Amino acid sequence: MNRRIAALHLARRFPDFDSLAAHMGKRPDTLRKELTGVDGYKWGVDDEELLISLCLAAKVPNHLAPVTAAAVNAGALLIPLPPDQGANGPTFKCLADAAHEFGLFMASAAESLSDGKVSLTELREVERQFGELVSKGQTCVASMCAMHEAGKPAYLRGSVVARSHE
């Protein structure tokens, strides 16, 4: 499935198509033509971004379908973050960094395996990438531990007993 078709299916799931078109600053027939690929009508990434935002606000399921389709078609992986990052933004940045590192590790491993042999240089590169991935993961866990500790009552902070029984 391509991203335009995924966007078409997403728009059809929106509670009121005419309202969606109005929010996008388009007439319903124009939006339909753009989404169905009628000659002379273009569906752009700015339109797609707005559609995704409107569908997210309306709680339409699978609102990331168009960008997920693009990622899959490019041989990539899209990992959505939870919607409300609030004060926990740095932790979500850790998750994003770890996901990026995972992608680099997977690309390195796949490239090494592509010819059916693994050279010493390729093995070292995969090991290095894996080390970076583990490091990013440990940073995320440390950040989450800090958040956990901060949420405890003062008399329990730093308590090994309290930590092991939660």
TrEMBL record:
Classification via Pfam families: Phage_CP76
MF-aspect GO terms: DNA binding
InterPro entries in UniProt: Phage_186_CII-like
Protein name as it appears in the record: Uncharacterized protein
Organism ancestry: Bacteria, Pseudomonadati, Pseudomonadota, Betaproteobacteria, Burkholderiales
